[in-house]
Design a protein that fits this description.
alpha/beta, three-stranded antiparallel beta sheet, 12 helices
Length: about 350
C-alpha cells in the first residue's frame, strides 16, 4: 500500500509538470557537464523524500537503491529511476545520470545478503568492525570469492550489481574503496600473501567488466565513481582512470558528526575542517588538483546556511568553483535534499 500511495502522488505531479516542446532536443548528461548533483541515502522509501527527489531537476543523482535493504526488496527502484528521467525530460529536455550507492568494502547488516550470525571472523572474510564506529558495518576481505559473489556474480540468486543493473541505474557511486587500507583487512591480506591495493584494482576491473560486458543486463556506458581513497589513484593513475570515471571527496572544508538518521541534529553540519585539522584542507586541495587533471571531481560538503552563517553559499559561490569542483552541500545524515540553501539556486 505504501508504494501504491507513492505512485499515485508521483503520477499526479507528472500530469501537472510542464511539457518539453516537440522541437526541443534531448540532451544526454555526461559527468563532465554535470553542474547540479544530489546525494540521498535515507528515506527514499517514504513518500516525502521520494516526492522531493523526483521534483528536483539535477544533472546527477546519487541514491540509495533501497531494494537491496532487508524487507524492501519489492521497492520499485526501476520505477524511481524511470520517473526521475521522465520528470527531467518533460521539464527541461535533459536525460540525467542516476547512480546507485554501493558499499564495496563493507558488509552492511541491513542488506538482503547479511546473515544474523555473521560477525568478524565468522565467516572468515569478515575482517572487523567499522574503524570509525559506524554501527552494523563490517570491513571485508573484498577479494574473497564469497564477497565477490555477493557483489558481482550472484549469491542466493542475486547480487548487488545485478540489482543496480536491473533497476536501470547509469552506474554506481562506490563507498569504502578504501577497504584496502583498513588495518583488519590489511592483516588478512598479509596472511594470504596479497597486495590489497592490487586486489582492489582487480576487484574494480571485474566490476566494470561485468557491468559493461558480461551481465545479461550489461550497459556499455556504465559509470563508476569512487568516493575517497585517493591513495589508489596515486598508486597507478593510468590503471585507475581505466576503470574509474569520476572521483568524489567528502568534507574538504566542512564536516558533520555522525547523527544517524537525524536531519536536524546541530552537529550534522557546519564543523570547519581547518579547526579540526589545520593541515587537512591544504593536503586535500593538493591531491584533488592532481586528480582533477584526469577526472571530474565531486565534493560533498556537510554545510548549510543557518542563522546567518552561510557556509554552503560560500562553497557554491567561491570555494568549489575556484578549484573546479562540482559541489553538493548537505547534512551528514543524507536523509533528504537540503533547502538551506537549495543547491539549484547556484
Amino acid at each position: 500500500m505504501k508504494h501504491k500511495l507513492i505512485l499515485i502522488v508521483i503520477f499526479a505531479a507528472a500530469l501537472a509538470a510542464p511539457k518539453v516542446g516537440p522541437a526541443q532536443k534531448i540532451r544526454n548528461m555526461t559527468l563532465i557537464e554535470v553542474k547540479h548533483w544530489a546525494y540521498v541515502l535515507q528515506g527514499l522509501e517514504t513518500p516525502a523524500v521520494y516526492r522531493q527527489v523526483l521534483s528536483r531537476p539535477y544533472d546527477l543523482y546519487v541514491l540509495e537503491p533501497v531494494l537491496t535493504e532487508k524487507g524492501l526488496r519489492d521497492f520499485d527502484a526501476a520505477g524511481m529511476v524511470r520517473r526521475i528521467r521522465e520528470h527531467n525530460l518533460k521539464t527541461r529536455g535533459v536525460n540525467p545520470l542516476v547512480l546507485a550507492y554501493v558499499n564495496l568494502g563493507q558488509a552492511e547488516k541491513w542488506r538482503w545478503y547479511f546473515d544474523e550470525s555473521w560477525r568478524p571472523g565468522n565467516p572468515g572474510w569478515i575482517a572487523g568492525e567499522d574503524p570509525d564506529g559506524w554501527q552494523d558495518n563490517h570491513s571485508v576481505a573484498f577479494w574473497s570469492p564469497a564477497w565477490r559473489r555477493i557483489m558481482i556474480s550472484g549469491y542466493k540468486g542475486a547480487s548487488q550489481l545485478d540489482a543496480v543493473l536491473s533497476a536501470g541505474f547509469d552506474g554506481i557511486f562506490m563507498d569504502w574503496v578504501q577497504a584496502f587500507s583498513d588495518p583488519t583487512v590489511m592483516k588478512l591480506a598479509q596472511e594470504q600473501n596479497l597486495d590489497p591495493k592490487k586486489a582492489m584494482f582487480a576487484f574494480l576491473e571485474d566490476i566494470r567488466k561485468y557491468a559493461r560486458r558480461t551481465s545479461a543486463k550489461a550497459r556499455p556506458d556504465f559509470l563508476m565513481i569512487a568516493q575517497n581513497a585517493p591513495e589508489l589513484f596515486f598508486a597507478d593513475p593510468k590503471r585507475y582512470t581505466s576503470v574509474i570515471d569520476g572521483f568524489s571527496a567528502e568534507s574538504v572544508w566542512y564536516t558533520g558528526s555522525y547523527t544517524g538518521s537525524s536531519w536536524e541534529h546541530p552537529l550534522g553540519y557546519n564543523l570547519p575542517m581547518d579547526k579540526l585539522d589545520p593541515d587537512w584542507q591544504a593536503a586535500h586541495l593538493e591531491y584533488l588538483a592532481r586528480i582533477r587533471e584526469r577526472l571530474p571531481v565531486f565534493i560533498t560538503e556537510y554545510a548549510q546556511d543557518i542563522n546567518g552563517v552561510n557556509y554552503a553559499s560560500k562553497v557554491y559561490r567561491e570555494l568549489a568553483p575556484a578549484h573546479g569542483f562540482k559541489a553538493f552541500c548537505t547534512r551528514r545524515s543524507l536523509a533528504r535534499l537540503p533547502d538551506t540553501p537549495d543547491p539549484l539556486d547556484f
